[in-house]
């Protein structure tokens, strides 16, 4: 599956209507973003059950601001509509593969319950 360009208009629907969505915040002038792009594209082709989305921070400045993007590239992972990972920096292919497997294995409801229990403690 090819990557999908997200906009402010399509962001929420994409996140909420797919089990797993990875989002790459990038810009054309960003060297590390250009280096990460082929790694992200390859992972997209290998993991067709996941939505691989991209947000051009220059074209979607309000969306980047709403997501508190201060450094690019930044990769976010959503599962069942919940943000479960956010990290700036270009990941090497093995690290991206590990992240994908971790997100697949994550039990979101259990993680939310554990976080709530820690907050109450």
UniProtKB/TrEMBL annotation:
User: Per its UniProt record, what SUPFAM superfamilies does this chain match?
Assistant: Thioredoxin-like (SSF52833)
Q: Where is this site: Contributes to redox potential value?
A: 31-32
Q: Where is this site: Deprotonates C-terminal active site Cys?
A: 24
The record places domain Thioredoxin at 1-105
Tree of life domain: Bacteria
Give the residue range of the signal peptide: none
Q: Where is the active site?
A: 30 (nucleophile), 33 (nucleophile)
Coiled-coil regions listed:
none
Entry's Gene Ontology molecular function annotations: protein-disulfide reductase activity
Where in the chain are disulfide-linked cysteines found?
30-33
Fetch the PROSITE patterns from UniProt: THIOREDOXIN_1 (PS00194), THIOREDOXIN_2 (PS51352)
Tell me which UniProt keywords the record has, alphabetically: Disulfide bond, Electron transport, Redox-active center, Transport
Taken from the UniProt entry, a GO cellular component term is: cytosol
Q: Which InterPro entries match?
A: Thioredoxin, Thioredoxin-like_sf, Thioredoxin_CS, Thioredoxin_domain
Homology family:
Belongs to the thioredoxin family.
The protein in question is named Thioredoxin
What organism is this sequence from?
Nocardioides dokdonensis FR1436
